[in-house]
Amino acid sequence: MSLEQNKAIVLKMYEAFDKQDIEQGRKFISVDIVGHGMDTTSRKGIDEFIQYAMSSFIIFPDGYHVFEEIIAEGNKVVTRGTFSGTHQGKLMGIPPTGKQVKFSFVHIDTLLDGKVTEHWGQADVFGMMQQLDFATVDRK
C-alpha cells in the first residue's frame, strides 16, 4: 500500500468510529490488532480493541476527532489533532458533568495489507480533567 492509501485507511477508520459505525470500522482493522492506550493494558484482538475504542463514545456520545496533522512513513501513520465532546458518561469515577471538552491526542497506527494491526494512543488527559474541573494547578 502507498503512504497515501495508508493515510486514507486510518482516516476512514476514525471516521467510522466518530459515526459510531462499528461494522464500517471493522473493515479497516486486523482481527489480530493490538491496541495500546494511556494505561498499561494492551487490548488484543478486534473485539477487545473496538470495545475500548468505542468506550469514549459512552463517555462523550457526540465525540469527534479533528485531524491537524497526518504523517505516514513505511507502514505507520501518525495522526495529531483534537477530540471534542460533551461529558455525558462516567469517566474515571467522575459522574457526567454535561461540560464540553476539547483535548489533544496523538495516535500511531501500524498497517499491514490495508488493515490496522497495532494502535498507540495518547491524549491530554490532564487538560481534559481541568476542563471538567477535576484537576487544578497550584501556581504558588
UniProtKB/TrEMBL annotation:
Pfam family, one: SnoaL
InterPro entries on file: Cyclase_SnoaL-like, NTF2-like_dom_sf
Xref: SUPFAM superfamilies: NTF2-like
GO process annotations (BP): polyketide metabolic process
PANTHER family for the chain: ESTER CYCLASE (PTHR38436:SF1), POLYKETIDE CYCLASE SNOAL-LIKE DOMAIN (PTHR38436)
Name used for this protein in its record: Ester cyclase
Top-level taxonomy: Bacteria, Bacillati, Cyanobacteriota, Cyanophyceae, Oscillatoriophycideae
